[in-house]
Design a protein that fits this description.
Protein name: Calcineurin-like phosphoesterase domain-containing protein
Pfam families: Metallophos
Strand content: 15-25%
CATH class: Alpha Beta
Distance between the termini: 76 Å
Number of domains: 1
InterPro entries: Calcineurin-like_PHP, Metallo-depent_PP-like
Radius of gyration: 22 Å
Structural class: alpha/beta
Organism: Paenibacillus aceris
CATH topology: Purple Acid Phosphatase, chain A, domain 2
Largest sheet: 6 strands, mixed
CATH superfamily: Metallo-dependent phosphatases
Length: about 280
């Protein structure tokens, strides 16, 4: 007797359950990156500390990207010093990251404000955005210029142009003045400048700001509760501890960060690594 071909073939329930679990598993994507700030290459043993920390920051988690948050090199009383220290910073970063195919971008810090041409020569633009590697364009890294203690007009214009079709990780040197910030207020932006930053971001983009990384204050600080009205999902961090300046709240170190992308929902997890 021939089999009845009119009845649909029923897959075993166990197979369907396994397939469903597999689909849920493969829908989750994790992109790891690292954030460092204030390496101050040129100051005391800043270069040595930076050279020791950076390999630790990328030795685990298959890092896709590294953010450097300004004061990458120290001041320098002459342009010759500044040139040498910029070169040393870039040589260390490139020597460690290039063989691993890990791109990086540096923000400009206050110690670099008076050597902008050299900064651009060695480390690129002071304001901009790029796709975060591994995110297929869903998440963008934005770096801003507030090296002199206020945001450049170009930085504010970029914030005003942010597109709600993307999520963002933002980095700049001076910390914002958020409520309850536990760092030296002489190393924090004014309330007026903080308001200027937040007000520049369009209302329909504010839920897309995943995290703001800042530096300058030689301390560790994080705030994951709402940091400003209208920014209910944004996490805020300070990390100025990747060089010879000793932090007031912990030793030198960096942030391990992970972007979690699942079913078109994006979250960020961040952990301080202190040494």
């Amino acid at each position: 007797m021939k089999k009845d071909q009119s009845k649909p073939h029923k897959l075993p329930l166990l197979y369907l359950l396994i397939k469903s679990q597999f689909r849920r598993f493969t829908a989750t994507q994790v992109i790891n990156f690292a954030v460092m700030g204030d390496s101050h290459v040129g100051y005391q043993n800043g270069a040595g500390i930076f050279k020791a920390l950076l390999p630790k920051a990328v030795q685990s988690g298959q890092k896709k990207f590294v953010i450097f948050g300004g004061d990458n090199k120290h001041g320098g009383s002459t342009s010759q010093d500044a040139n040498a220290w910029y070169k040393e910073f870039k040589d260390i970063a490139s020597g460690i990251l290039n063989p691993k195919n890990i791109p990086f971008k540096a923000s400009i810090g206050n110690w670099e404000d008076n050597t902008r041409d050299l900064f651009k020569h060695y480390l690129g633009s002071t304001v901009g955005q790029m796709n975060m590697p591994g995110t297929k364009g869903k998440v963008k890294h934005v770096w801003l210029d507030n090296a002199p203690g206020k945001f450049s007009d170009e930085s504010i214009a970029l914030l005003k142009s942010l597109d709600p079709n993307f999520s963002y990780v933002i980095d700049f040197h001076w910390p914002l003045r958020v409520q309850g910030i536990g760092v030296d207020l002489s190393h924090v932006l004014s309330r007026m400048e903080t308001d200027r930053f937040f007000n520049a971001i369009p209302g329909h983009v504010r839920n897309n700001i995943l995290a703001i990384f800042t530096h300058h204050a030689h301390a560790w600080y994080e705030k994951t509760s709402p940091i400003y009205p209208g920014f209910t999902k944004t996490k805020f961090y300070v990390c100025g501890c990747s060089g010879a300046y000793k932090c007031t709240t912990g030793n030198s170190g960096y942030y391990d960060a992970s972007l979690i992308i699942k079913n078109n929902q994006i979250d960020i997890h961040v952990m301080a690594r202190k040494f």
